[in-house]
Design a protein that fits this description.
The chain is 25% helix and 31% strand. The chain is α+β, with helices and mostly antiparallel strands and 509 residues long. A hairpin with a 1-residue loop joins β8 and β9. Bound molecules: FE2/S2 (inorganic) cluster. One of its GO terms (molecular function) is metal ion binding.
Length: 509
């Protein structure tokens, strides 16, 4: 089992040990520094090291700590954002390029599993999307046409090989599935084997440009000619934070009473939709179902999201045991496609990859291939389509930055009289709550021993107030998705600083 960015543990994280780092020595100067130890960062690092660059990969926690460890790992060309939307926003040639790039990403992953003999259960599969009412049927019809026009191999089918009824469905060939962390680890090992350096538990705290890029991580500094931010969402303050909306998605793994695991990939058309597949892990088959998505920081009782997902699974499958429940974060780009390329508003030596929707395995791989081409100067048709600078300057952004900037609280040393403790009286161990006392807010967490931990709820990114996430026992920011542990330490970008600790004590007078 490895550490992750929340209280729950995914199926993949449960079944793997810490990555056995072999980088025992590191230097201070590199050609390219890559930040982020998920599929985007590790694949990019390997490809760039293979291309002859001297690369350093920095990870704030451990490889597979974030969404690569929390994905359900569908390898699909039938993406979360419909081809109808992609075509409408970017045109048919762009939709075709995305369909082709998605298929290439699956082929690339398969090639890597063969080249490095990776035991990650990679298997090809079909995808099925199905409609259960007239409105969904009409939308499915439009998507079937748009996906076919984009180049996908789509056919209509009358029934599903699944115990779920529908009124229409499409089948799409050329999909796949795998276990993401064994794949990630083998790519990381391959990177180290050709001289790449990985440093875990190394959080970047400052990025400066002094002719080259200078990175500060705690007490250490590193210099690179180029920097790739593969951190899911870039740290610091950037226009992309206004163009990517953070969501949480919920997943569970289950053993079924009979050995009738669905072997393909399935998507209903509910809002939010459910996604279904299976995977063998350590000799045991698991049904893996996801759904119940909502904007980050917008649901406090996220335990309810797990219960609703569980109820849905029990309704459709004969479940013997739910073995894991976990949630994970993704970023929805406002126009439907990710942002991969030079980071807007920065020097030309900083690259970014973000806004993958729920297709992180595919877009993470696409990002690595595209970034490699860009850094080698090789033309790539995706460069223009996915250019993060396709953004127009947004009116009012500077106002947004200063929004709430004057509300940072100074609350150190505050004493709460016993008479006011009713605010926290019903807080159970393991629960957190934002309370207001004397018109100032505190984010208070009661640990399993009953001890209270208090932090300022003001997010250190751009000063929105965080909310409690009961399922993951974290403080989640509804604005750009930064997340913090119960005691305020950073779990997710874009924040780089912990929530301000408040030393609050109860007093009886
Ligand atoms: Fe931007 Fe919290 S993540 S204000």
């Amino acid at each position: 089992m490895i550490n992750r960015d929340g209280y729950t543990i995914s199926l993949w994280q449960q079944h793997i040990s810490a990555f056995p780092l072999s980088s025992t020595r590191h230097e201070q100067v590199y050609d390219i520094i890559i930040v982020g130890g998920g599929i985007t960062g590790v694949t990019t690092a390997l490809l760039l090291q293979e291309a002859g660059f001297k690369c350093l990969l920095l990870e704030a926690a451990n490889l597979g700590y974030g969404t690569t460890g929390g994905t359900t790992a569908h390898l699909n060309t039938l993406l979360d954002v419909s081809y109808e939307t992609i075509e409408k926003n970017f045109g048919l040639p762009a939709a075709r390029s995305i369909a082709k790039a998605s298929a290439n990403a699956i082929a690339f992953i398969e090639k890597m599993t063969q080249e490095y003999s990776i035991d990650c259960g990679f298997n090809t599969a079909d995808a099925y999307q199905y409609a259960q009412n007239k409105e969904q049927d009409e939308a499915l019809d439009r998507e079937a046409t748009a996906a076919t026009n984009a180049g996908l191999d789509v056919s209509r089918v009358a029934t599903l090989p699944l115990p779920i009824s529908c009124i229409s469905a499409i089948q799409v060939k050329g999909q796949a599935k795998f276990s993401p962390l064994p794949y990630l680890y083998e790519l990381a090992k391959a990177f180290e084997n050709i001289g790449g350096v990985i440093l875990e538990n190394t959080r970047v705290t400052k990025i400066e440009h002094k002719g080259k890029v200078e990175i500060t991580a705690g007490e250490q500094t590193f210099t690179g000619r180029k920097l790739v931010l593969a951190t899911h969402i870039p740290p610091g303050i950037n226009l992309l934070h206004l163009r990517c909306i953070p969501y949480r998605s919920y997943a569970l793994a289950a053993r079924l009473a009979q050995n009738d695991y669905p072997q393909d990939l399935y998507y209903d058309m509910e809002e939010p939709f459910h996604y279904i597949r299976s995977q063998e892990v350590d000799g045991q088959q698991y049904l893996i179902v996801g759904g119940e998505d909502h904007k980050t920081g917008h649901h406090e009782n996220t335990t309810l999201c797990f219960r609703q997902l569980e109820a849905w699974v029990h309704k459709h499958f004969k479940v013997e045991e739910i073995t894991q429940r976990w949630s994970s974060q993704f970023y929805e780009p406002v126009d439907g496609l990710p942002y991969i390329g030079q980071l807007p508003g920065e020097e030309e030596d900083v690259y970014v990859a973000t806004g993958f929707s729920g297709n992180g395995m595919i877009y993470g791989t696409i990002a690595a291939l595209l970034l490699r081409d860009m850094l080698l100067g090789v033309p790539n048709e995706l460069e223009m389509i996915l250019d993060p600078n396709r953004l127009k300057p947004i009116a009012g952004f500077s106002n947004f930055i200063s929004h709430n900037a004057d509300v940072a609280m100074q609350f150190v040393g505050k004493l709460i009289p016993a008479a006011s403790l009713h605010l926290l009286a019903d807080l159970a161990p393991g629960e957190g709550r934002v309370i207001t006392y004397e018109s100032e807010k505190m984010a208070v967490y009661k640990d399993e021993t009953g001890e209270l931990h208090s932090v300022s709820p003001v997010c250190t990114h751009l000063k929105c107030d965080v909310n409690w996430n009961s399922g993951e026992r974290s403080w989640d920011c509804p604005c750009h998705g930064a997340r913090y542990s119960p005691d305020g330490q950073v779990l997710n970008c874009p924040a780089t600083m912990a929530l301000q600790a408040l030393h609050v004590a109860a007093t009886v007078k």
